[in-house]
């Protein structure tokens, strides 16, 4: 789990083979079509102006009184499934026991009146739990709960089919919201929670059919878990783990400590589109040890200034970028709406670096360097098969690794003004690279095999992009820093049909 990589002696190896035949050099005027930029989008300002709930109880609803502690949990227990509950204006409380919570029944709906707040008073761990399917929560503020690390406040048991709409889930410890299969989170404010705004994780199985749409996800990871547990990979706006099929669209993800959106380990079939990702301390988006995604028409601005600068200041040459694909790629054998990772029609402005495609040569099933402990690829469910001598031969040589392959990056706009970012070194990188394989001693991936594969054999391709500013490019390993002409020329032959200029006026 997390974005760990092994640093070692990076080789200076000359690559010999070409990828695709292109020509071009820096600052040479060419008649090329401009990429179509992502459309200008208004952000989902949900937190500042949440849509109010009904001022009167819906027909047939059970009314919940804020003056009676535990009234919501007790009336839920006494009512049949498919009951609607209307919470009057005011501060609603649970019993003063840390495990006191609301346990909905199948099909229950909870609707808040204007000003209705369910407050955990820093006493209760969970707000809504249990395994009931098809629960709906609308127009309700949930705050002040103290879920433990890696647990969540709303839907803390990851039940299926929940709908969270026009809700405000704020100022809780742990994750504000967990997720189950077929969950829909729409037009809600996930703000100021201690670990995540939402943790999409379902223990013991894969989570399918998730929709995250039109939300504001802001200021999460207030407890700064990466500092408390360095390398935990457990922070950010939203974390996805083993999610199969997710539509993440039209959200405003900003000012989170850590990454904005982080898909970590065996996620598949994501569509991340039409979002605005601003001012997150870390990467706007991390897609790690995962498969098959479309990332399009997002506006991505001023991300990674804190974490990128931290790496640079300590002399780390790794190009940690604002869109970071780590051991992730297209895989036709894993069923999805696409068989590649396609990144297009996005606008990236004044982030700390651009897009990095990375593959850790030492990270594979059964390797001690696999930080997703006890997990294997979706192609080899039986982890113990990935061992000598079989791993050194087909098909396990390929199938025991998460591979950064079949990634296509096109018709994007990348703009960088270093004076805005406030940097002098290493904030200007696009990269495709791997490390020199060294570990463990039985690994069949030692040496430069993975670095050469990701750079020239695995169909990773940039083309028809626009670059504004002083961009550099890293290929094969961190020591190979290229200008645009070298990046476009043999042996790399990237960014066919792209344009490069110093400023928008140039």
UniProtKB/TrEMBL annotation:
Record has Signal as a keyword: yes
Right handed beta helix domain ranges (all copies): 155-304
Pfam families documented for this protein: Beta_helix
Residues in the signal sequence: 1-26
Top-rank taxon, per record: Bacteria
Region (Disordered): 28-63
Keywords: Signal
UniProt keyword Signal present: yes
Name used for this protein in its record: Right-handed parallel beta-helix repeat-containing protein
